[in-house]
Amino acid sequence: MVAEDLAVLRALGAPEAPRLGEGGEARVYALGDRQVLRLLRPGASSDQQIARAELLAEIAAGRGAIAFATPEVERITEIEGRVAVVERLLPGIPFSQALAVAQGEERQQLLLGYLDVASQIGDIAVKRDFFGDLGSERAIRRASYRDYLQARLEMTRALPGPLSHLPIETIEGMPDCSSASLVHFDIFPGNVLVDAGRVSAVIDFGATSMIADRRLDCWSAVAYLDAELSPDANPGDRALALDWLEQRGLAADFAAARGWIASYWCFAHDDPKVSAWCSRILAP
């Protein structure tokens, strides 16, 4: 329990609600056995959360035959000056937790499921007439994919912070893309839930979601298995993930893509794990 959250939890009738997790944007609490609370940091905008809820509803409607679940907002309210978002509870535990204990064939199948899900995000029917950000407050949107990639780099280099000198200078080496798809861009083990030996849900669409090359989710899901970001992933897991890329014809562009992905994340310098990863990938 975090003291500053207690008044909100009391107002919701759940002063003893267990905390499930925490990110840069919100803390997450369980509200009984069917709902979760995303309690935004002080100063968060309800308008931004309404836009996120609309995107999540579009994603849920666009899943089609895809087997994994995605978040769905049930209500948004403001309590004690805090934005509180109540969502449907999704089944499973984070894949990051399963990595800490799973062994052998079970571990391999969970890892392949995680990677396969990354390749399926682009099948979700969310379409726009641009390449660019969906959930960012400073959304960058361009008519061409390469223009978006370059503009994103330039914005990251212009932001203040100790990593602003690290982003790559150009997008040379990044493959082009003419067909825009939904990209989650934060498919890492903590944002994928597993249950009964399979992937059950993908969470945390929103802030980093974009319309771009669907392959970005494949490359980033592999990149986020690096030790700084996924300490419970082992060298065998990373070798399997690289082989998965090879089998799909994605390995040749992985190094270039990882450089752009790490450049994107340089704004998150206050996260020690992300900062260490970006520095290792991008340091000259």
From TrEMBL:
InterPro entries from the UniProt entry: Aminoglycoside_PTrfase (IPR002575), Kinase-like_dom_sf (IPR011009), Prot_kinase_dom (IPR000719)
Lineage top rank: taxon: Bacteria
Residue stretches making up the Protein kinase domain: 14-284
Pfam family, any one: APH
Protein name in UniProt: Aminoglycoside phosphotransferase family protein
Lineage, uppermost ranks: Bacteria, Pseudomonadati, Pseudomonadota, Alphaproteobacteria, Hyphomicrobiales
